[in-house]
């Protein structure tokens, strides 16, 4: 198994050694809260506040108000504007503020969602014409693997087309470098509604999974602005209107997340072929994924999804 660079392992190990043990017996996890405000699917970072402490009983709305000017509607329950930017219509398309906690779209209003130690809270103003809900995003990595969902850390299972392959080892090493223990299994190892799953393999190997099937149906069903061809050999990248922006062939990869009702999010580290999967596995890190909803990887570099038009 390939190991992460010794310098990275040492740095992460030193940092983890100073943290308080927390949650489900899975080891230490950071307790500082982060707040990020962006627009256009994370393309423009408007404000980022890290290493903040959350008070007992503090809500996502409280956290946002403590760092930003907030306009609300529906008797204060819905965020209508942040720092003077309001939802409504933009270029003839509807856009509104949405928020994610540890990379998961919250099921309740911000005034009813508690902030837990270590949470990464992300607000984004974006076009929702093609996806009224985007259930999970990759841009809060290493969340939700590190601190879990709603204050509960979840077990992590990496399901690989080849457990001994480079991509599987690379993804496993990346998570373990952040102090996340992860089991390794074959793709399709069975239902696990309270387990965070990462599917690693060519699209032809993951396509039979329910999460992958929702991605194949388009952003309206999965929140992922990309589609593989039926034979899995081409990856079409979509813009915010669901239109084809470009199509990648050999050596193309995808890192994305989605979620079905009553199940934990499922991530895919996949591609059109083995080289594409390896390319995606090499990008499975915070620097590449930060404030991105999903990413495609091709010979020309990394593309944030959706690929913004105009």
How would you describe what is shown here?
The structure is a single chain. With 310 residues, the chain is α+β, with helices and mostly antiparallel strands. Helices cover 19% and strands 32% of the residues. It has 8 helices and 19 strands. It has a 7-stranded mixed sheet, sandwiched between helices. Strands 1, 2, 6, 7, 8 and 9 form a 6-stranded mixed sheet that branches. The protein has a 3-stranded antiparallel sheet with strand order 3-4-5, with helices on one face. A hairpin with a 7-residue loop joins β16 and β17. α3 runs parallel beside α7. It is globular. The N terminus is likely disordered.
State the main characteristics.
310 residues; alpha+beta; Ferric Hydroxamate Uptake Protein, Chain A, domain 1; Chitobiase, domain 2; seven-stranded mixed beta sheet; six-stranded mixed beta sheet; disordered N terminus
Uncertain spans, ≥5 residues at pLDDT below 50?
1-27
Number of domains: 2
Helix % is: 10-25%
Spell the H/E element sequence.
HEEHEEEEEEEEHEEHHHEEEEEHHEE
CATH C-level label of the largest domain: Alpha Beta
User: What oligomerization state is this entry in?
Assistant: single chain
Instruction: Give the overall form.
Output: globular
Q: What's the architecture of the largest domain in CATH terms?
A: 2-Layer Sandwich
In the sheet with the most strands, the strands line up as: 11-10-12-17-16-18-19
Distance between the termini: 43 Å
Biggest sheet character: 7 strands, mixed
CATH topology of the largest domain: Chitobiase, domain 2
Helix and strand composition category? alpha+beta
Number of strands: 19
What is the mean predicted local confidence, pLDDT? 89
Work out the radius of gyration. Answer: 19 Å
The percent range for strand residues is 25-35%
What is the tally of helical segments? 8
């Amino acid at each position: 198994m390939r190991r992460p660079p010794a310098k990275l392992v040492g740095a992460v190990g030193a940092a983890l050694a100073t943290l308080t043990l927390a949650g489900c017996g899975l080891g230490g996890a950071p307790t500082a809260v982060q707040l990020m405000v962006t627009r256009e699917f994370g393309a423009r970072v408007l404000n980022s506040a890290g290493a903040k402490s959350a008070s007992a009983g503090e809500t996502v709305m409280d956290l946002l108000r403590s760092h930003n000017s907030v306009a609300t509607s529906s008797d204060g329950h819905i965020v209508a504007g942040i720092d003077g930017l309001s939802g409504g219509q933009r270029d003839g398309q509807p856009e509104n503020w949405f928020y994610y906690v540890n990379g998961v779209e919250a099921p309740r209003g911000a005034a009813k969602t508690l902030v837990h130690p270590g949470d990464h809270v992300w607000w984004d103003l974006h076009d929702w014409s093609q996806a009224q809900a985007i259930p999970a995003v990759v841009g809060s990595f290493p969340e939700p693997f590190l601190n879990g969902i709603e204050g509960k850390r979840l077990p992590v299972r990496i399901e690989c087309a080849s457990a001994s392959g480079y991509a599987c080892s690379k993804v496993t090493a990346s998570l373990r470098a952040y102090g996340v223990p992860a089991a390794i299994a074959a793709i399709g190892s069975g239902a696990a509604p309270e387990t965070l799953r990462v599917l690693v393999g060519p699209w032809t190997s993951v396509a039979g999974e329910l999460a992958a099937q929702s991605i194949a149906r388009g952003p309206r069903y999965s929140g992922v602005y990309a589609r593989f061809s039926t034979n899995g050999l081409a990856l079409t990248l979509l813009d915010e209107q669901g239109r084809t922006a470009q199509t990648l062939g050999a050596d193309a990869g995808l890192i994305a997340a989605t979620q079905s009702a009553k199940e934990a999010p499922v991530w895919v580290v996949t591609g059109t072929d083995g080289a594409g999967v390896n390319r995606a596995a090499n990008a499975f890190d915070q620097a590449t994924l930060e404030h991105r909803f999903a990413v495609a990887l091709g010979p020309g570099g990394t593309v944030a999804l959706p690929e913004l038009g105009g």
